[in-house]
Amino acid sequence: MSDEGPAAELPLAGGRTTSGVVRVGDTVRRPVRAWTASVHAVLRHLEQAGLDGVPRVLGLDDDGREVLTYLEGDTVGDALPWPGWVTSDAVLADVGRWLRRLHDATADFVPAPGSVWFAARGWEPGLVVGHHDAAPYNAVCRNGHLVGFVDWDGAGPSSREFDLAYAALTWVPLLAPGSAWPVAVPAPAEAHRRLHLLLDAYGYDGDRSAAGRAVGARARRGAEVTRQLADGGDPVFAALRGQADDLDRAAQRAEEQPPSFWQPSGG
Ligand SMILES: Nc1ncnc2c1ncn2[C@@H]1O[C@H](COP(=O)(O)OP(=O)(O)O)[C@@H](O)[C@H]1O
Ligand SMILES: [Mg+2]
Question: Which atom of ligand 1 is nearest to the CA of 19?
């Protein structure tokens, strides 16, 4: 209608940070950070590659925020307990297939010199781009299937295993019992089954014990980054110190798994 004012800004729930992410019509507005330009190059590459389930970059708004397309679907938001799709085998397999498409689509991505990333390693030949935070709290689902992932702030150069590791930690999940996590930690046999469902859906034909080592490394890195930001006075990350402890315990648990845990049944 012609007499409508500017579209309303609707706060979006489910972020782990008080980052001021809002929805405006079919768009999302997010604050620009040091790595935003580098991440936009990734998102544009994915648009070119035709990977769906990825917010498209529309530019910056008058307030200097990034403008992305809104992915229609269900998110966990503030729901507790988390919705059933978080633990469904169907979505777990979708996550594996979607990560495979992300990694394949970025195998030929070469970041501009001087690219800045949140916490990712520097690019070198052979790396792909990982989302690095492809967890239930950043997933969008529709009709019981994964649409894709939002919140690309952590994206950057990665090995395939390192990015898969965070999905394994948060979707299987491979956390330690007693972690502050909205989903129960499965017993070892069920964790084994779901881990290899994820890796099979990815089509992971590498050495699965290497994938296992990546789980420990990814969990330790997450703990380290969280503590560094907390020590630097970031109030959001100060509140996440407990999560850093959970990640360290997840790393220890991964490192203590028998070798058979990382091998598919009969493999
Ligand atoms: N492009 C998007 N499409 C749909 N929902 C989004 C989009 N971006 C963010 N959201 C929703 O807003 C929540 C918070 O945004 P997110 O980008 O994850 O910020 P934070 O850094 O706070 O985690 C997400 O968990 C999701 O529910
Ligand atoms: Mg988020």
Answer: 22
